[in-house]
Structure formats: C-alpha cells, structure tokens
Design a protein that fits this description.
The protein is of the alpha/beta class. A seven-stranded mixed β-sheet has the order 5-4-3-2-1-6-7. The two termini are 20 Å apart.
C-alpha cells in the first residue's frame, strides 16, 4: 500500500470547479496537491468521470504536481473497476485482507492503493473554494476539516 508525502493536506473535490480551485491555489503557493474524490465517488460518479475531471484540471494547471485519489469506499468491485479503468491511485477502506489483494492487483497494474488518508478539506458547499484551498494548503485554516 502506498504512503503519502508527510505533509499531505488532501482536498476533497466534487467536480471540475473544485479541482480548478484547488489547482489554482496550489499553483499560487507552489505546492504539490493531493486531490481526493467525494467519498464513494467510484460508485456514484464512476472512474471515467474522475479521470476526465483530473485530466482537464491537469491540462489547465500543468505546473501543479498533483496526486489524484478515487475514493472507492469499502467496495472491492468499484476498486477493481477503477484499476481496470486506469486510475492511478485509489482509496479502499474495506477489510484488510481484501485491501491486501487489491494492493497486489494495483501494483501489477502500476497503480497504488491507499487504505486511509489524513484529515482533509472538503469543498462541498464552500462559498469561496479557491480561498479555502489557499488557506488550507498554506496551513492557515483547519476549519473545514472532514473525515
């Protein structure tokens, strides 16, 4: 299973607008970015949607070093589907024995599996996502923490 950079401050996104706000803030600050889909987005929105959102955000913000994580919750079928769809990093919060098997499959495909994340900023219903991301990434705001 994959380890995150020691100072990771994940940002939960719910669409391209959120991803763009986070990327803009990261570019302004010159920091790497850890984007995470909404909880269980693999089931609701799908791996293809997530890959497209991340690809568009990356194209609009090529200077940002970004890691994107698709949250598959505790659903092994969604995790396998995401891996088959070419998602590079997935979050799986199910049973440990299943996570170990999924991690092996992910490694064989050149992908990574996480089983936990540090607390993060969730952009759902945030009025000014770019400002919230900038404050979060610079360590000035812990008020929107979730998870």
């Amino acid at each position: 299973m994959t380890a995150l950079p020691p100072l990771s401050r994940p940002i939960r996104i719910h669409g391209l607008t959120d991803a763009d706000a986070a990327c803009s803030a990261a570019a302004d600050l010159g920091v790497p970015l850890l984007l995470v889909s909404a909880p269980g987005a693999a089931a609701s929105a799908g791996a293809g949607w997530f890959r497209e959102v991340i690809a568009r955000a990356a194209a609009r913000h090529p200077s940002v070093a970004m890691t994107a994580v698709l949250d598959c919750a505790d659903r092994p079928g969604d995790a396998l589907g995401a891996l088959s769809a070419g998602v590079d990093v997935i979050l799986f919060t199910g049973r440990t024995d299943v996570a170990e098997r999924l991690a092996d499959i992910a490694a064989q495909r050149g992908s990574s599996l996480l089983t936990a994340l540090p607390e993060g900023l969730d952009l759902r219903a945030v009025r000014d996502p770019r400002r919230a991301c900038r404050e979060w990434l610079s360590g000035q705001d812990d008020g929107h923490v979730t998870e």
